[in-house]
Amino acid sequence: MSVTQELLDQVDTIARAAGDAIMEIYGREFTIEQKEDKSPLTEADAAAHHLIMDQLALLPLQAPVLSEEDTASFAGADDNGRYWLVDPLDGTKEFIKRNGEFTVNIALIEHGKPVLGVVYAPALNVGYVAAKGLGAFKTEGNTAPVAIRVAEHAADQPWRVVGSRSHAGDSLLQLLDKLGEHELVAMGSSLKLCLVAEGVADAYPRLGPTSLWDTGAAQCVVEQAGGSVVQLNGEPLSYANTREVLNPFFLVLGENDVNWPALFN
Question: Would you say the pTM of this structure is higher than 0.70?
Answer without folding.
Answer: yes
